[in-house]
Amino acid sequence: MRGLYEHSDLVWYLVGRDLRVRYRRSTIGLLWTLLQPLIMMLVLYVVFSHVFRFQVYRYPVYALAGILFWNFFQQSIVASMNSLRGNAAILQKLPVPKAVFPVATVISGVVNLCLALVPLLAILVATGQPLRPALLFLPVSILLAALFTLGAGLLLSPLAVFFHDVVELVGVVLMLLMYLTPIFYPMAIVPEQFRWMVRYNPIRSVLEVFRDPIYYGKIPPLPHVAVTVVIALVALAIGAAAFRKSSDRIPFYI
Amino acid sequence: MPTLTMPRPVIEMRDVSLCYRLAKQKIPSFKEYALHWMRGALTYEQLWALRDVTLRVERGESLGIVGKNGAGKSTLLKVISRVLPPTSGRALVHGRVAPILELGSGFDFELTGQENVYLNALLLGHPKREIEKRFDAIVEFSGLGDFIRTPIRNYSSGMLSRLAFSILTAWTPDILVLDESLAVGDVHFVKKCEERIAELQAHGTTLLLVSHFGEAVRAHCRRCIWLESGRLRADGRPDEVLAIYEESSEVALVANPADATISA
């Protein structure tokens, strides 16, 4: 981690590169960031309200906020795992602090998340929902989500160097976790005997701190925020420690 | 010559050994790892890429490094560049190391030449402000002109190595690592490179030149080391070291005619 600060110019450049490669030359890139969650939300909306016949209050907003959060979390983790291997040639030759790659990946994920928030806010307005001051809490929510995600990314990215099948393995685990997180279903529909699994899933805390200001228009309860801060910092500490420990071995295996 | 307050070596290696620990099963997947681990069947092969290398290089020296494939040349450079930590022994390197990257390894082919100047120089550890200051000089030296604004996937390999060299030598590194790939390219640019290298050396840059053959080393270095199987076999004046290196290679070639036809 030391040296990350001295290389902050490099981090920002890598972020810019990610975004440029994604959005340059094509409006498709931008359109996709904005449209993909909307399409997903529409599908879920149809399935939930017309197939399963659940009535969830303002379901589009609920689901869309969840999808944006999950996209950010999942895409950042997968991209972090690929970031070290994708820069193998550099890591074999130059003494660059290796953490710059996962860090830059998560930061550009945050930028994508912020872009994707625009249509969500538009939907809020379109459905006659006033933009509440609680939305100003979102930067804090996003920061917590980013720290938590970075922790996971730092933990997993060296593993992806040592074992090439970890990326697929993590893909499966992430899918499982998605169903254990109330992304597109409300807590209320979870049967009593399974509810603890969802309740004690730390990702749920991070998600709700993000979704509460949007969906309820309220700042999340303070104890809940405090718990989430602890979760995010613990995740980051574990990830950073694991990354530091395996950092020296990365060029041997990449 | 600039006056030196304290002549300390730029590279000080004492009994440096480096071991690659390779799993014999050699399947880099977690599934295989878990299966082998459960059976207790994980065995490792130790490959010593460097053995007890002791080396002291002074500021401003020009050192050629010769040896066959797999002799440990690139491992030695990785230790000097602080990419790989030695398994045992002590390696002290003072100052900034600028290694020439294989064609394109520090480049992003989706980006323009201009963007790659920034990317590459940032990776070498230069802050953005410094790069802005030297950007024009880098482009001018590379001779790429307006091509600098086009994506580098359209560049020829000559253009890429010109750009790489221009970025690398825009600053005065304490240690400059080059390989003979530089000699490929047009005569005019090779001459410019040689002048630039001489200029850097005059400012105290230590030059490390890696080579399979002796020619480049004979032309540019005052000292040469020969690595074989990770050991330092000889260290001295290029003509002396190259003489025994070439002699031993010839013996090896005679012993193995298959190799001889390949290298002929």
Can you tell me about this structure?
Chain A has 254 residues and is an all-alpha fold. Helices cover 74% and strands 0% of the residues of chain A. Chain A has 11 helices and no strands. Chain A has helices at 8-23, 27-51, 59-86, 88-91, 100-126, 138-162, 166-179, 195-199, 202-215, 222-247, 250-253. The two termini of chain A are 19 Å apart. In chain A, 37% of the residues are buried. The model of chain A has no long low-confidence stretch (mean pLDDT 90). By secondary structure, chain B is α/β, with parallel strands linked by helices. Chain B has one domain (11-37, 44-259): Rossmann fold. Helices cover 39% and strands 24% of the residues of chain B. Chain B has helices at residues 30-38, 73-80, 113-123, 128-142, 157-168, 187-202, 215-220, 238-255, 257-263; strands at residues 11-23, 44-57, 62-66, 88-93, 97-99, 175-179, 206-211, 223-228, 231-236. In chain B, strands 5-6-7-3-8-9 form a 6-stranded mixed sheet, with helices on both faces. Chain B has a 3-stranded antiparallel sheet with strand order 2-1-4. In chain B, helix 3 packs across helix 4 (128-142), helix 3 crosses helix 5 (157-168) and helix 4 (128-142) packs across helix 5. The longest helix of chain B has 18 residues, at 238-255. Residues 253-264 of chain B have low confidence and may be disordered. The A-B interface holds A 6-7, 9-10, 13, 17, 20-21, 89-96, 159, 162-166, 169, 248, 251-253 and B 20-21, 28-31, 33, 78, 81-85, 97, 99, 101-102, 105-106, 108, 110-111, 115, 118-119, 122-125, 127-128.
List keywords for this structure.
heterodimer, A: 254 residues, mainly alpha, B: 264 residues, alpha/beta, Rossmann fold, six-stranded mixed sheet, three-stranded antiparallel sheet, 9 helices, 39% helix
